[in-house]
Amino acid sequence: MANLTSVAGIIFANMHDLTINDLTKVRTMGSVPFGARYRLIDFPLSNMVNSGISSVGVITKSNYQSLLDHLGAGDSWDLSRKAGRLRLLPPYGNIANTYTQGGLYRGRLEALANVIRFIENTSADYIVMNDCNVIVNIDFKKVLEFHAEKGADITVVYGCGNYNTDELRPKTILNINEEGLVYDVLLRAQASYANPNADDAANDETRVPVNSSMNMFVMSKAFLLDIVKESSSRSLYSFDIDIMQRRCNELKIFGYKYEGYYSQIDSMSTYIKSNMELMDINKRMAIFNQNRPIYTKVRDEAPAKYGLQACVTNSLIADGCIIEGIVENCVLFRGVKVGKNSVVKNSIIMQDSVINEKCEMDYVVADKDIKGGSYRTIMGTVDYPVFVGKGETV
Amino acid sequence: MKHVKKECVAMILAGGQGSRLYALTQDMAKPAVPYGGKYRLIDFPLSNCVNSGIDTVGVLTQYLPLVLNEYIGNGNPWGLNRVHGGVHVLAPYESSGGSKSWYAGTANAIYQNMNFVDRYNPEYVAILAGDHIYKMDYSKMLDYHKKQNADVTIAVLEVPWEEASRFGIMSVDENGIITEFAEKPAEPKSNLASMGVYIYSWKKLKKYLIANEKDETAKKDFGGNIIPDMLKDGCKMVAYNFESYWKDVGTIDSLWDANMDLLNPRIPLDLYDSNWRIFSRNDIMPPHYCGENCTIENSMITEGCNIDGLVGFSILFAGVTVEKGAEVRDSIIMPGAYIKKGAVVQYAIVGEDTVIGENVIIGERPEKIENISEENWGVAVIGHRVEIKDNTVIKPKEMIDTNM
After folding, report:
1. Which residue does chain B place closest to A278, by CA atoms?
2. CB of B38 within 8 Å of any CB in chain A?
3. Which of A227, A301, B55, B345 is buried most, with the most CB atoms less than 10 Å from its CB?
4. pLDDT, position A93
5. What is the pLDDT of residue A225?
6. A36, A295, A303 member nearest B301 (Cβ)
C-alpha cells in the first residue's frame, strides 16, 4: 500500500460556494460555521491529519479572509511542523501558466494549474483532493489502499442515497459497474435519467437511488500533473466535465463506496439538516470519533453558563454561551447569548450572536454577531427558514 | 544561546502537594487540580502573566509533576511558546558539588533556580503561587513597585478580621509601607493578608536568597525568613492593595466553594471577559449535547458533555455524561466522569473518569440533616478513576479513593 508519508492533500476551500449563497457572501465554503464550534474545512483537514497526511495545500479563490484567520499557521490541526505543513494557496500565485494568468480559476483543473508548483514540489507520490461540503469522519488510508489495489487512475469516494431532481441538481452522480469502475458521470441529472435502473415513470418529485460523489479523489502525483498540464494546454478547466465525464470510459476511474454516516451540504436546507442531524447520538458519535477527533481553532471560551430560568432540550451548545431562556432543537455556536424569557426553537445561531430578553425565534438561521434587541419575534417555518445575515441588527 | 534581556520574569511556585485535598491530589500536584469546568488552578497565574505582558515564566515543580508537566507542555495554549523566554518547567536537580537537591522551601526553590532568572538579566522578578484563583494585572503592580522605588511589593487583600489569623498579615503605615509582618498571628494587628504575589527587585532578592541559604538554621521560606529579614534590615517594602476576587483553595470545602462562586452573579470573577481570558489546554471534544429529558439550572457545562438528566447548581467538566433519570445537584463533576441512570449526586466532588453506577446515592443536602455539625456533614469526595457499583450509598463528607 501507499506509504503515508508520501501522501499530500489538496483542499478546495471555495468549491460549492454558490450552493449556500447566504452564508458564503462573506466567506468561503471552507469557513462556513457548522456544528456549534466548527468551520466546514475542519472536517477535510482533520480527516487528512488523522489519516497521517501532514502536507496539505488549501486552494482559495475569493472571500478568504475569514479562512486565513481560522487556519493561521495550522497549529490547531498539528499542521505547523517541520516536515509537511499547511500551505495556503491563494489565487495569483502563478501567473505564467494558465489562461486566467493564475487568477480566479474557472474550474478545478485551472485551480490546480495555478498551484502546480505546490504539486510539483511535494515529495508525495499520491494526492488526496477534497472539497469542504461533506461532513464525515473518513480514514483516507483505506481509500489509498483501495486505489493501489485497483491500480486506478482516479479513485472517487461516493455514498448512496435517494434524491429527487431538485436535490440531484448540485450533485455529481456516478454510475458504477460490479467491479467498481465508473462508466457514466452525470451532472445536474434529472431523476428519470439519474440511474440506468431507475423507474421510467420517475418524475421530478420521485426520489431515485443513486451513487453520489463525495468530492474526494485520490490520484498519483504523476497522473494528476499529467492531466493538469494537458488540460491547461487545451484550455480545459472543468475536472467534472473534461476528465470525469468525458474520459470516464478511457481512464480507470474507480468508485470507493463509503458506508458510514456522512452528510453533504449543497443547499440551505441540507445545511440545516446536516447541523440538526448531529442531535442523533449515533450520527454524532460517527462524526466525532474520539480516536479521530475533529480539530478546530481554539477560542479559549469559558464553559457555557445556564441561568436560573434556563430550559434547554435537544440542543448542541458550545462553550462561551450564556443561556437564560428557553432553547429547543437548536445549535448554538460559541459565545451566543439568550436572554431571560426568550424562546429559541429549531434554529441555528452562530458565534457571538446576542438574543436579548423576551424574544421569540423559530426556524431561524442567524449568522454570526447578530444583535437582537428585546421583544423581537422572527418566525420561519420548516420549509422557509428565516436567514439573518452576519452582524445584522434585528 | 543568546538570551534577550527581560524586564520582569515570573516564577510560579507549583510544587505544593495540597495534602488537605486528599483523594484529589493523590496523583497530581495541587496546581494541576481541575477547576471551573475547563481549567486547572495553574491557568490563573499563567494567564495573568500573559495578559500582563510577562512572557518569561519559570514553573517550579516538585510533588508529582507528571500531570503538570504534560499540561504545560510547550506553553502553546497560553501563548508562552516563545522564541525568547516562554514557559519553562523547573524541576529540582542534582549538581556536581551536591549543593542542589530537593527544594527545601519556597526561598530555596528560587535560590536553586537563580541561574534560570539570571539568563534573562531582569530588573524585577514576580514570585507567584501556582494554586490561587484570581485575575490580576501584574503590570499595574509592577508600575506601582517602580513608582514607589520599592525593594519588594507585596499584594495584599483585606480579609474579614475573624479569618485574619489564617493568613500572613501585613501592618502598613499611612503611605502603604509595610511596618510589620506576622505569619498566621493568633491576635492579628491588621486584616491585610498577603496573597502570595510578590514583585522583587531582582538584585535585592538575590542578595537575601544567598544570605538565607548560608544560614543553616533558616527555614528557607519567603514568609519565614526573606520577608522578616528584609523588614528587619529596613528594606523598602510596600503593600499593593488588590480589591477583587482571590481564593486559595487549600481544602475540599474551599475548592467546592470556589467552584460554586462561579455560579454566583455577585462574585466578581468574570471568566467571560474577552479582554482578560483565562487560557487552558483542553481535549479536542465536540460541543455538549442537551437531550430530550435534560433539565439544567444555574450550572456551567463544557465541551463533550452529554446531559439527559437533571443538573442544578453544578459545574461539569469536559466529557461528562449524565444519563436520563440521574440527578446532579450542588456538585463538581470532573472530566470524563459518567453518572448512570437513577444516581443522585449532591454536595459532592466526583473525580476524573470516575463511574457512578445506577441508583447510587452520594452526599446529602445539609437541610435534611438533623443537628448538623462538622462531624456529620460535609462535601463528599469520590477520587479520580474510581468505580462505584450500582445501588451504593455514600454518606456526606466521605472520601472514597478505591472502587466500591
Report:
1. B289
2. yes
3. B345
4. 73
5. 97
6. A303
Q: Are A186 and A173 in contact (CB under 8 A)?
A: yes
Q: What pLDDT does B342 receive?
A: 97
What is the predicted pLDDT for the residue at B208? 96
When CB atoms are compared, the residue of A294, A306, A322 closest to B296 is A306
- Report CA dihedral (B123, B129, B134, B140) to the nearest 10 degrees: -10
- Mean pLDDT, residues B269-297 taken together: 95
What's the confidence (pLDDT) of residue B157?
Answer: 96
CB contacts, 8 Å: B315 with chain A: 303
**Contacting residues of A for B290, CB less than 8 Å apart:** 312-317, 327
Of A232-236, B48-52, B206-210, B293-297, the least confident: A232-236
pLDDT exceeds cutoff 70 at A3: no
- Show Cβ contacts of residue B164 under 8 Å, excluding neighbours closer than 6 positions: B185, B188, B190, B191, B193
Q: Give chain B's mean pLDDT.
A: 94
Question: How many angstroms separate the CA of residue B290 from the nearest CA in chain A?
Answer: 5
Spatial distance between the Cα atoms of A18 and A240, rounded to a whole number of angstroms:
17
Cell numbers found for residue A1: 500500500
Give the nearest partner residue to A317 out of B77, B288, B292, using CB atoms.
Answer: B288
Strands B8-13 and A315-317: unpaired
* Whole-number Cα distances in Å, B390 to A2, A44, A136, B79, B359: 49, 42, 37, 44, 6
Contacts of A304 in chain B (CB under 8 A): 288, 300-302
ipTM, two decimals, is 0.92
DSSP classification of residue B278: P
Residue A198 pLDDT: 66
* Contact between residue B172 and residue B239 where contact means Cβ atoms under 8 Å apart: yes
Q: Is B301–A304 a contact, with Cβ atoms under 8 angstroms apart?
A: yes
With a pLDDT cut of 90, the percent of chain A lying above it is: 80
Strand B152-158 versus strand B295-297 pairing type: unpaired
Helix (H, G, I), strand (E, B) or coil at A12: strand
Task: Report pLDDT for A200.
Answer: 66
Mutate to test the interface with B, among A50, A313, A323 (most CBs of B within 10 A): A313
Q: How many CB atoms lie within 10 A of CB B29?
A: 26
Say whether pLDDT at B217 is over 90: no
> B296, B314, B323, B338: best mutation site toward chain A, by most A Cβ within 10 Å?
B296
Find the CB nearest B290 among A281, A284, A315.
A315
Which contiguous run of DSSP H or E holds residue B289?
A: strand B288-290
